[in-house]
Amino acid sequence: MEKPTSASPNAPVNSSTGNRSGVDNSRGDTHLGEHEHKRRWVGIFLLITWVIALAAWVMVVVAQAFIAATITGGNEIIRVFWFSTIIQLLVLLRVMQEMLNHPTSKYSYGYGTQIALLCVVAVAFSVLGADGTIYGAKRALQVTGAGMIVTSVIDLLWILFFTHPASSSRRGSNTGSRAETGNRGETY
């Protein structure tokens, strides 16, 4: 017998949930609620870290421009670190694109590997930039170093977030091992 999919007056009523859909969702509602709760926290995590990283990036850009324009020999100090700033902008844009394009995805981000790799490059250059500027005598050099440290920490968080392994608990009720379920939770 085919189960009704809409709430029709002829559909049987589930006594435990009062649901007229003909499908017992007493366990499913809780399970969907857990996924919705996790999805909301993931969105909040990405949004908060993105805003902090954007503020730090703007601080670095302004400080680097100030250094290049006013400090004698400033271009020699920060010339390579502009590359880090550009890579960080690409990371910020890609994370923003993922947040906007995948608000309903269940922890699967299409460009997660690309974001993680860009973050690795940005962290490498940012750490070098922070080391070269944070101990400077001028305040603008110290601000550049501090901003690079903040973006590096957030990039490290994003590397961990976007490279997390797929787990069967997030993909559904599949409880098999990796050998039984494959890399992404598909059953063979």
UniProtKB/TrEMBL annotation:
Protein's name according to its UniProt entry: High osmolarity signaling protein SHO1
UniProt keyword terms in alphabetical order: Membrane, Transmembrane, Transmembrane helix
Organism phylogeny: Eukaryota, Fungi, Dikarya, Basidiomycota, Agaricomycotina
Chain segments annotated as transmembrane: 44-71, 77-96, 108-128, 140-161
Organism listed in the record: Hypsizygus marmoreus
Residue segments, region Disordered: 1-31, 166-188
Ranges annotated as biased composition (Low complexity): 167-178
Compositional bias ranges of the Polar residues kind: 1-24
